[in-house]
Amino acid sequence: MTDLLPGLVVAAHGRHCLVESPNGERCLCHPRGKKNAVVVGDRVGWQTTGDEGSIERVEARRNLFYRQDEMRTKSFAANLDQVLVLVAADPEFSESQLSRALIAAQAEHIDALIVLNKSDLKPAFDRAWERLAPYRRMGCQVLPLCLRPADGGDVPTDLVELQARLRGRTTLVLGPSGVGKSTLVNRLVPEARAQTGEISRALNSGKHTTTSTTWYWVDKAGATALIDSPGFQEFGLHHIEPMQLAHLMPDLQAALGECRFYNCTHLHEPGCGVIAQVQSPPGMNGTISDNRYRIYRELFEELSNKRRY
What we know:
Blueprint: E1 5-13, E2 16-20, E3 26-31, E4 43-49, E5 52-58, E6 64-68, E7 73-78, E8 82-88, H1 95-107, E9 111-117, H2 124-131, H3 133-137, E10 141-145, H4 157-166, E11 170-174, H5 181-188, H6 192-203, E12 214-217, E13 225-228, H7 250-253, H8 273-279, H9 290-304
Parallel strand pairs: 3-5, 8-9, 8-11, 9-10, 11-13
Antiparallel strand pairs: 1-2, 1-4, 2-3, 4-5, 6-7, 12-13
C-alpha cells in the first residue's frame, strides 16, 4: 500500500493504541488482525477508517525491549536509544531484578543507565551506592538522584546531569513500583499529568496509574523522548539461552577468553576464567563480585530448567 500515512505509536492499552502523525496530531487506531503486535515506539503505516484508524504495517524495528516468563511475553517498547533503570536507596532494591533488566537491554544492544534515587536519604543511600560498585566497575553508567526540589527552587545538579544524558535520545524509564518513575517523568515533562489524562480518555482505559506504556516528548523540537512503563516485580528472561547468559553480563564476558574449554558453563569446569576472577581478591584482578556470580548461577539454573514449548 503506497497511500498509508506514517505514524508513531505513543500509547497502547489492550487492542487500542494512539498513533501520532508527523504534524503532532493523534488518532485512536487498531492493529489489523487478531494479534496485537504493535508496541509503543513502533513506526507504522496506517489509514483512516471513519473517526479512527487502522494500522496496516509496522516498520522494521531497530530493537524491542521485552521480558518473557513461562506464561507470557511482555513487550515494553521498540526503537530505543537507552533504558533508564530507576532504583531507590529505600526500600532496598533487588540486585537480581536490576541485573535481569540490564541483561535484557544488552541482548537487544540497547544502552543502559542506572539511576539511584533518594540521594538525600542517609545512610541508606551510601549503602545502596556501595552495592552498585560492581556495576560501575564493569562500565555501567550510574547516577545519583534526588527528586526533592533544591533550596531556592533551583533545579538540582544531579537532575541537570541526568537531563544531559537524556537529551536527543529515546529513553525507556524502567523500574519496580514505588521508586519514583512517575515523579521523575512529571519533573522532566511538566505537562505529563495532563497528557496522561488525555491518553486515558482516548484509549478508554479509565484510571491511568502507569498501567500502560506511554511516550512523552521532553522538548518541543521532538528530539528527546521519555517512555514511562508500568512497575514490575518479576522480570523473566526465558528468551535468553543459558549459554548466552555470560556474554550478556559485561563483568563475566571480559573473562570468557581465559576459559580452558570453549563450551564452559562457568559453574564447575577446571581452568575457568570466570571462576578464577570470582576467587581472586578485589584489587588482584578480581573483577566479578560474589553477588554477581551468585546471580549468574541462579539465572543459569533457571534458564536451563525453563519449560520447552
